[in-house]
Amino acid sequence: MTTDTHVKLIRFADEGFLIKPYNTDFNYGVRRNYCHTFPFIDFEVTNLEDTDGIVDIEKVTKPKINDEQWSGCFAFLNTFDEQLFENAMSFRKGDKKNIGYLLNNPDEIVWVRNTSHKGQRISYISRTNEYFPEHKQSIEDYFSDLGHLYWVKMKLGLALERIELGQKHLNWTPEWLSEVYLTKDQVKRLKSSTSNNFFINLKNKLIKN
What we know:
Blueprint: E1 5-12, E2 20-21, E3 40-45, E4 53-56, E5 60-61, E6 71-77, E7 97-103, E8 109-113, E9 125-132, E10 137-142, E11 151-155, H1 156-170, H2 175-178, E12 179-183, H3 184-188, E13 191-192, H4 196-200, E14 206-207
Parallel strand pairs: 1-14, 3-11, 4-9
Antiparallel strand pairs: 1-6, 1-7, 2-6, 3-5, 6-12, 7-13, 8-11, 8-12, 9-10
């Protein structure tokens, strides 16, 4: 008999795991509104050692304001570093800590930052290729200095491995290392730590801490 393994997702926000478009205006009634400028790259990282890759420009998407197709939620995968609240996460200091659990399905894919576990400035994808049919020519264009903060896809298990390798290499857990962007579907599948039924059903199951 096999057991189901779950991984922990952590979010600091009084509204909990709130589902909303990646970029929103004030129509969503959230307490704090931010404009997220970093695009999503439709590319799955399958080898943590492969960096400085290239994709067709069509693979890069910057969600527009209130685009429901890009609804989801920011969270930390399995772990976070307390010192973040003194700088990058200072705006969340004092907010409620929310914990949910997602089934560790081998095929589950999450969005992670486009940064190798070896540190910032080392990106999985560093540039795009754009083809101009009228000239029968392709042009490569490197991302900006913040390209390492774009989003790429990665299997959940590999994302956990990336965090562990990064912690060993860096001796701490930067925000970009354990932060993920959960899709609307994934947020809906989270099991709440406050759900009695969930913990009753956890008998014979393993929770990965």
